[in-house]
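Q: What structure does this chain adopt?
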Amino acid sequence: MLTRSPWALPAALTVALSLAVALGLAVVAGGATAEDPADASGRAVQLRLDQNEQARGRADAPLTLVEFTDYQCPYCRRFEAQTWPLIKRDWVDTGKVRFIVRDLPLEFHSAARPAAEAVHCAAEQGRFWPMHDALLAAHADLTPAGLSRTAASLGADPARFAACTTEHRYDAAIAHNAGEAQALGLHGTPAFVIGRVRDGVLQGWVLLGARPYEDFDAALHEVLAAN
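A:
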């Protein structure tokens, strides 16, 4: 039985998420993981948010959607290419959802952590989202030279970018994000938490895998309708 969240998820979504757990739909939808990703799907969780989250959408949007991503994960790229544009159009751009990205580089993806670091270093120069999007594009070059070329092509100063990555300035931040994901039982990517923020804490439910837009749309409508 699923534990109900403090804001009482509607029965329809509870049933849908319970079925996802039972049938392992997260596996079918796709998710890079070292263990069964259906283990966590549908669970109620709480996640404290920082004031300086990398976010898209209105800060006062009624719903928040957090993605834990791995830049080498093919399923994360599928979500970015197929599902994210529709969520952005229908939910983020309309002011109903704030979208946040957190790091979850998987250990068996050797390029994932350097890529996450590169995105943080690009953020120092105001280019977090362009770099994020570029590294999740099809055929993105995640080699060290490729990361440098991508940052430069987006207008980042090469010397500043190189100094940042060489010093590994964001090791602690990346480890923190990954640690919080693991504490929530999230071991595969992409992994999502969808819910409402109360006093700086996201109270929500887990969705796993590169699900089709219709799954997100249905879940978001259910959560939006909740009190």
